[in-house]
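Subject: sequence -> structure tokens, single chain

Hey, anyone have a minute? Need the predicted structure for the following. Not urgent.
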Amino acid sequence: MDYFAQQAINAVQLGSIYALIALGYSMVYGVLVMINFAHGDVFMVSAFFCFLLLLVAPVPFVAALLIVMLATALLGVCIERLAYRPLRNAPRVSAIITALGCGLVIQNTTLSLSPYSQRMPEIFKSVTWHLAGISISSLQLLIIGVSVGLMVALDFFIRKTRYGMAMRAIAQDRFSVPLMGVPVNTIISVTFAIGAALGGAAGVLYGLAYPVIGASMGILVGWKAFVAAVIGGIGNVRGAVLGGYLLGAVEVLIVTVMPSTYRDLVVYSLLLVILVFKPYGLLGRPAVQKV
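Reply:
Had a minute. Here:
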């Protein structure tokens, strides 16, 4: 029983990281109805931002987190402004190819600068406590606490602030909202900035939990987070969180009871099964078509 309780803590830790990345996919899809396939690579770049920052100037965790989130948010805005905005009214396939191209450019640029995996410097000493046969470290508490705090802040921002309400309005009807004076371009840039910043936070936390980082981690982890967003209902913020934690729990459960080589097989099989019975994900809803 203690063993499964221990794995439950590990599942929450992994699910927290997946959920943060999945929120970036879901927010962009909710506003623009497009998949930002470069988001996983933005997550990867954020881990390297943190790595370089700690090499140049060892800073406390909070400062590193805020600096990386700000840098990643600027990267997200630049991607939207330079790559996606000119194609906003182009055929959907053009946006998809552009997103894939952005991801490849980011990944190969990182690969050319750092062809080998790097070990993340240690920001602080983690302490482990043992309670009733269960071990929990200060690093796990930090990852879970920061992730949940950012999710609660995002939920408040979307539901209670002017920019958040504009995001929801654009998600409902992107073509009528500009007639009411809402600056659509600004709101879309804010959406990309917040989504990328959350991915940046996930990159920092991932680098602390799994301290070997490389240019391919954006594909491996980014696709898992995309699956989490689809399972929860892409376009639905709370669905992305649900999908992230569900995916983290499934992965840890599979590794607990089966060989780890079955992990990806079960994860993607789960995605197929859920989409067969819930085509819009667990919390997703079909878009309303006006005639």
